[in-house]
Amino acid sequence: MHTWTQASSDLHPQTRGQRLHANRLRWLLIACASLIGALGVLVMPATSLGQTGTTWTSQTSAADNEWRSVTYGNGLFVAVANTGTGNRVMTSPDGITWTIRTSAADNGWNSVTYGNGLFVAVAWNGDNRVMTSTNGINWTIRTAAANNSWTSVTYGGGLFVAVSYNPSGNLVMTSPNGTNWTAPEIAPPANDWASVTYGGGLFVAVAYSGIGNRVMTSTNGINWTSQTSAADNQWRSVTYGGGLFVAVAASGTINNKVMTSPDGSTWTSRTSAADNQWRTVTYGNGQFVAVASDGASNRVMTSPDGITWTSRTSAADNGWRSVTYGNGLFVAVAVDGTNNRVMTSGTLGVLIPPTPATPTATAGNAEATITVAQGSGPGGTTTDSSTVTAVGDNTKTCTVTGAAGSCT
Fold first, then answer.
1. Nearest Cα to 71, choosing from 109, 18, 114?
2. Whether the predicted model's global pTM rises above the 0.85 cut
3. Which residues is 47 bridged to in the sheet?
């Protein structure tokens, strides 16, 4: 039986490590074969939501604010906005029904993350540009290390790390608890840093300015090393999943609006599914999902490996700015649109295996060849593989690799 690990968004590795056990469907096939006359076969599909992210549904946002970021933690989706009066936070337990929450201040909130039992948001303006919440509902204002334009915040290795696009120093700040923030004494490159993530013991940030150095890495959030980006594009978002860092850009050509790295140091350009302005990317349940702020009904693209990307139809042609993953569901938020600034893909809390076509068996000499056809399930679920076991003798097994095939 597989154990599934869920991962978050936009830049939100805090949800990695939460476990979700997929429900299994079992059915019995009695096939004529020369294994004790009549062979009983139990076929168990190993189920994946690798195709979740394909079909998207519009949801009603709690208000038509400019929603800039969304994350998932402790059973709750939380989004923050750049506009609105006293209502720049909204929450949802299922990605569908959203409730307005009172933000700690009417700042331009750019990013929100979850880690160590705490939601933390950062802003690009205001007197105090950090706010925190233990439940996503009640928020407390905090003092940032500097009043810079904070663009992104993440959590990893016991530390919150935020980056800024003010090229005047204090471009990074860190906090062990979300309350007390400090800026490293050694300033990182003076680029416009747009996004930061954590994975594999490493913080990685990407920028939309700079010459040949639009990536930086750090093992502790304090000491940063410049890295050569695959191209000098406007890199807007970076995430980590499946042992790979993946970044997306709002500028460049279709051949280089994605770049990938296994270690944060060596980056390779990849071809995006469409020549859109890609704003954010996340990883969940074995799949990378990116959303864009422009494009004609193709403002989503997905990839199982970060290298090969496929266009998907967005629920609406809104300016999508952030996407996250939690508990079987991808959730994206937008800065524009009318009563539809949220879209979702997947099935919350349930990994539903596909219903296959009836397997067939061909008798052989003291053996049987079992053929399993591809099935389809809700939410775009597919089968990674199927294990065939002889009923009454579980030592006799074989595995069908892929969504369909045969084994003996």
1. 114
2. no
3. 383
Closest CA to 263 of 241, 281, 244: 244
Query: Residues 280, 43: contact at Cβ < 8 Å?
Result: no
Q: pLDDT (tens digit, 9 = 90+) per residue, 213-254?
A: 999 999 999 999 999 999 999 999 999 999 999 999 999 999
Closest to 144 in 3D by CA, of 110, 195, 188 = 110
In this structure, what DSSP letter does residue 379 have? G
* Cβ atoms < 10 Å from Cβ of 201: 10
Half-sphere exposure (Cβ direction) of 310: Cα atoms closer than 13 Å: 13
Task: Read off the pLDDT of residues 377-386 as tens digits, 9 standing for 90 and up.
Answer: 433 445 556 6
Compute the CA torsion angle 79, 80, 85, 91 (nearest 10 deg). 20
DSSP 8-class letter at 302:
E
CB 345 within 8 Å of CB 52: yes
CA distances in angstroms from 368 to 223, 357, 377, 392, 407, listed in the order given:
61, 18, 27, 15, 8
Q: What is the DSSP letter of 359?
A: P
Q: Which two three-digit tokens encode residue 256?
A: 């280089």
User: Are 279 and 321 contacting, i.e. CB atoms less than 8 angstroms apart?
Assistant: yes
